[in-house]
Amino acid sequence: MRKLLSLIFWTAGPGMCLAGPLDLLVKRIAPGNEKHFQFVLEPGKNKRNYFEISSYKERIRIKGNSYVSMASGLDWYLKNYCGVSYIHSDSTLQLPKVLPIPQERTYKETHLQIGYTGYDAWQRLFWNWEDWEKEIDRMALSGINVCPVWTGRESVWKEFLSEYNMSEQEINRYLFGTEQAPKSWIKGQENLQKKIVKRMQNLGMYPVYPAFAGTVPENLTKRENHIITIPAHTAENISRKETIISTEDPIFAKMAKKWYDSYENIYGTTAFYQGSTNGQDFPSDIQECLLKSLPDANWIISANTEIPQKTKTEGIDKQKAVLLYSANDGSWKNQEETKVIPWIWTWHETSADKNLTISLHEALNQPEQASNHPETASKIQGIGTWTPYIQTNPLSYSLINNRRWQPEMISLQEEIEQILKIRYGHCNTKILQAWIRLTDLDQGYDPNCSFLCRKPAMNLLDQTADSISKQAAYSQQISEILTDLLSIKDHCSKNKNYRNDLIRITAMLLEQKSCALYLKIENDFAERNMSSLTQHQKDFMHLIHLADSLRSYNPDLCWGHWVKQADENQKSKETGGVIWYKSLLRQQEQISGQVPALSGILAEFCAPRWELFFNWMNRKISLGQIAAPQYQGLDDAWYQQSENETAIVESSSDIYQIITESMNL
Fold it and tell me: Distance between CA 256 and CA 285 in Å, rounded?
């Protein structure tokens, strides 16, 4: 524990020094205003993270024990003195011509040392440096100091696997699902990762690299005799044709060393390495191999599935381990591991299984409860979210990360009111109450993910007697919130934050309605009610196209934008253009079971699948026993099609018309 805590207090040297990286941050987010701030780094002065805001010779002075703490202080100043926040902005900040000078000292500190954010690798697959630069600045301003960065792993895998005489074609097949992988793209991702790591380290943030837990391609173990393996325990392992080498086999330690050497050769080392226990009987051996290569490393254990299943934690060096707990149902109170291993509480922003997550309103109380719980208070080391990027759900991101500096719930109404005034430049009682109600419903819905993007089949959802009525009640509440938000459309029609919030909430509504319609269609099919089945299928297809049109109004939710975001220098003949990017999506679909819910993909890839599935249902009713629908041909046609035009094409419908249709569907 002591070593872990001392690591968090990053220091550039003894005494006080000017924090140049934050001057550059201000220059990026509010050009011309850097001369009005003075940042003073005071490493080691306090055993807690802290920031202090005051004035000095007509300048705003911000002190802190780390750059990220001072960045949090900068964000606090911008919100409370200037009424702006880069976290809630899509461009540079417009600050007052004369910046307000603090008349009194503001001091904040936190015993929670880690501000964490996580994401799935595919969610940033096509990001460029501009995207990453903005996100890193927003993370620093939000108090985030630990974040996994999965970009550029392909270079590490190539160096690592080539040590075991795997050919380039075999490695490419494993990594990308195709033997022909453009070297320019792989090198571009490597260079991007180096820029990401350098910027994070300059700001005193800790990139997290993947730990080696034994997962390798099947081809590797087939050519090595007598390797001890354990069963592939996830669908991901099976779909990628992977096997897991047991820690009991001596080759595990040798491979682990080569893995960490490869990472160090390409990207250097870091303080945190993250990975699951991977079904190993003795996960302590994973950590032992890590520490042999990197004695100062800390292992972040993704424990939302492994630890609650009574995985053996004996032998784990608890001073060099951090438990990443994201089950979110409050069961951390009953887990023995959270009482003996340092851990981070995270709100896992997912709607995949609402039984495994809690609403935002409930989530906001969890960090305070864990910090005050007598058995876990000394072990909780941080809080965070698991989200694609900050702008996906800025309300939850801001409220949860603010718990580090303000763990007690003072007034949710005041916090949300401040955020809405910053986001919209306007807030009235109706809008405020609508957002407060939303915190009771919001379970971290990510508009990039959708039930609509799953491969159609029977029994995709658990159906209970009242499931359809619950979905309908939930949809009604979201519709009422949207109705209230639409009351200020004339005032906020040009505000991008307002439009994007409407899109996300409407996408959440359509997600609920799609699940309810699917359950109705299954009931119609079981009862052979053809008239009702036909109508519900028609409504479902209309819903998919509404969801596609809705997302076309937010560039970040468009497939064309994703392709355009890819480095133009890598879109050469060698990369194969759009087809190469689609091959990356196809590999991701084989792993996760679905493609991202983007405009262009919903209408052109997902809709034909559902139409084929519904045709199969109708024919099965009339013909009886027939073969299950086959999607291979449809999928191949889309994946192999190279579009000449990837520009974003907005729907011809008005966005408010789409929202109204979604509410009335």
Answer: 10
Cα separation of the two ends of the chain: 54
User: SS3 of 341, please?
Assistant: coil
| CA angle, residues 208, 598, 539, in degrees to nearest 5 | 135
Give the pLDDT confidence of 446-482 residue by residue, as tens digits: 888 899 999 999 999 877 767 778 888 899 999 999 9
Dihedral sign computed on CA atoms, order 58, 60, 65, 66: negative
* Res. 158: pLDDT tops 90: yes
Indicate the range of 312-326, 418-432, 543-557 predicted with least confidence.
312-326
Calculate helix-pair angle for 129-141, 20-29, nearest 10 degrees.
110
- Average pLDDT estimate for 653-661: 92
CB 303 within 8 A of CB 337: yes
201-255 pLDDT, tens digit each: 999 999 999 999 999 998 888 777 788 888 766 655 666 688 899 999 999 999 9
Helices and strands per DSSP (H, E), number in the chain: 26, 16
Looking at the chain, the whole-number percentage of residues with pLDDT higher than 90 is 58
CA–CA distances in Å: residue 68 to residues 41, 101, 204: 10, 22, 7
Name residues whose C-beta falls within 8 Å of residue 215's C-beta, 6 or more positions apart in sequence. Answer: 237, 242, 243, 244, 245, 278
Report the mean per-residue pLDDT for the chain: 87
Tokens of residue 18, six digits: 């000017």
Backbone angles phi, psi at 302, to 5 degrees: -75, 100
Query: Measured between alpha carbons, how far is 654 from 651 in angstroms, rounded to an integer?
Result: 8
Q: CB neighbours (10 Å) of residue 377? A: 13
Rounded Cα–Cα distance for residues 161 and 167 (Å): 9
Q: Give the separation between CA 385 and CA 400, rounded to whole angstroms.
A: 7
Predicted confidence (pLDDT) per residue in 578-610, tens digit: 888 888 888 888 877 889 999 999 999 999 999
User: What tokens appear for 226 in the block?
Assistant: 């007598």
CATH code for the domain defined by 2-110 = 3.30.379.10
What SS3 string covers 136-154?
Answer: HHHHHHCCCCEEECCCCHH
| CA–CA dist 657, 295 (Å, integer) | 59
**pLDDT by residue (tens digit) across 244-299?**
999 999 999 999 999 999 999 999 999 999 988 888 888 899 999 999 999 999 99
DSSP character string of 66-134? SHHHHHHHHHHHIIIIIS--GGG-SS-----SSPPPPSS-EEEEES--EEEEE--GGGGTT--HHHHHH
What is the edge-to-edge ordering of all strands in the sheet holding 242-245? 215-217, 242-245, 229-230
**Which sequence spans correspond to the domains of the chain?**
2-110, 447-664
CATH-assigned architecture of domain 447-664 = Up-down Bundle (1.20)
- Rounded Cα distance, 581 and 642, in Å: 10
Q: What is the C-alpha separation between 95 and 82, in angstroms, rounded?
A: 7
Q: Which residues contact 606 (CB under 8 A, 6 or more apart)?
A: 452, 453, 544, 595, 597
Alpha carbon distance 39, 79 (integer Å):
17
13 pLDDT band (50/70/90 cuts)? very low
CA distances from 665 to 316, 508, 519, 533, 547 (A): 54, 14, 15, 16, 12
Q: Residue 394: which pLDDT band, with cuts at 50, 70 and 90?
A: confident
What CA–CA distances, in Å, run from 249 to 42, 214, 256, 379, 460? Answer: 48, 10, 12, 33, 39
